[in-house]
Write a structure and sequence with these properties.
By secondary structure, the protein is an all-alpha fold. Among the domains are: about 200 residues, no CATH class; about 30 residues. It is about 55% helix and about 0% strand. It contains 12 helices and 3 strands; from the N terminus they run ααααααααβααββαα. It has a 3-stranded antiparallel β-sheet, sandwiched between helices. β2 and β3 form a beta hairpin. It is globular and about 95 Å long. The N and C termini lie far apart (about 90 Å). About 35% of the residues are buried.
């Protein structure tokens, strides 16, 4: 019988490993701080849950992708996407997991572990993030379902590393279940995975906040916004829409919903991804970028600030007075520098 693998908490530290730990911890802390303070936290958590669930499914060798999860959760059939054919129910664990993410704090981190916990070698001295990765590693070998990958965001919060359960954090490797790779290399790859997922989560939050600012400005500048503000609020938690799914949400006909979506697309509030003449499908701009359906914007982002009307009038009056003064000076033969 093969001996148990070396606990990740007992891996000997090297400069490169310590550097990966520092980068992963910093990225995780930045994401947690931003999400905890953001007014768009509910919308981000929904989007992050799609990314995290897709990552967990990949670790289960499932062919389901993030775009399929979004379509399933929004009740849409996306053009050009084949029907998902799997031997199991790939979405069965999503709802219970999403509910668990919103549970109040209080449970100990050891609750629900699929194995009997005994402090491994190096447990007391190990950093908190390495402890969490050790628990993930041991759980993945004890439980071959999707549960260990999905439990990691809750584990991070319960162990005290984050204040919010961050759904996008689902690091891991399928090979962990066989413990065949050298443990220092595995730990280094897991730390890189934590850093990448945290950085991706922060990028998603940046895109969501930027999109919300541009949408608010576009709606405010419309003379008759109508249902645009309602559509913008709906898109935060249901960013994949079609006329037939939007109509009952805003209380208009399917035809009216289609016109509303076309108007929103012209203003940059939504992005059409279907390219079809009927049953057109639209997504929020930040989701379109996350899925690679829209290229990221280049250069300096456009300003979302507008001048206050009173200030604009004052500045215009000042410019007019200065122009009159310069004209009088020129008539008197006094040179005026530009």
């Amino acid at each position: 019988m093969a001996p148990p693998p070396l606990p990740l908490t007992a891996v000997a530290w090297t400069p490169s490993l310590a550097d990966e730990l520092a980068q992963a911890s910093a990225a995780l802390a930045r994401l947690d701080a931003r999400v905890s303070a953001s007014s768009l936290r509910p919308g981000w958590i929904l989007r992050a849950s799609w990314a995290g669930y897709a990552a967990a499914l990949r670790l289960q060798q499932s062919p389901v992708e993030e775009i399929d999860i979004i379509a399933e959760r929004c009740g849409l059939r996306l053009p050009g996407r084949a029907l998902i054919r799997t031997e199991d129910e790939p979405f069965a664990a999503y709802e219970p997991w999403l509910a668990a993410l919103s549970e109040p704090e209080g449970r100990h981190w050891s609750d629900g572990l699929p194995f009997t916990f005994d402090p491994p070698e190096g447990w007391r001295e190990a950093p908190a993030l390495v402890r969490a990765l050790h628990l993930l590693d041991a759980s993945a070998r004890a439980d071959r379902t999707i549960a260990p990958w999905l439990a990691f965001p809750l584990l991070l919060r319960r162990i005290g590393l984050t204040r919010t359960a961050l759904p996008c954090m689902a690091p891991g490797e399928p090979a962990q279940r066989f413990a065949s790779d050298p443990r220092p290399l595995l730990l280094k790859r897991l730390l890189k995975g934590v850093r990448r997922q945290a950085e991706d989560g922060l990028e998603r939050l940046d895109r969501l906040e930027a999109s919300a600012r541009r949408t608010a400005l576009a709606v405010a500048q419309e003379h008759r916004p109508g249902k645009l503000a309602d559509l913008a609020r709906i898109a935060l938690t249901r960013p994949c829409l079609a006329a037939r799914s939007l109509a009952p949400l805003v209380g208009v006909t399917v035809s009216g919903a289609g016109k509303l979506l076309e108007r929103a697309t012209a203003l940059g509030i939504m992005v059409e991804i279907s390219g079809r003449g009927s049953w057109r499908t639209y997504v929020a701009p930040d989701v379109a970028q996350s899925l690679g359906l829209r290229s990221a914007e280049r250069g300096r982002p456009p300003s979302v600030s507008t001048a206050v009307p009173e200030v604009a009038d004052i500045l215009a009056g000042f410019d007019s007075e200065m122009a009159e003064i310069e004209e009088r000076l020129r008539k008197l033969g006094i040179a005026v520098e530009d």
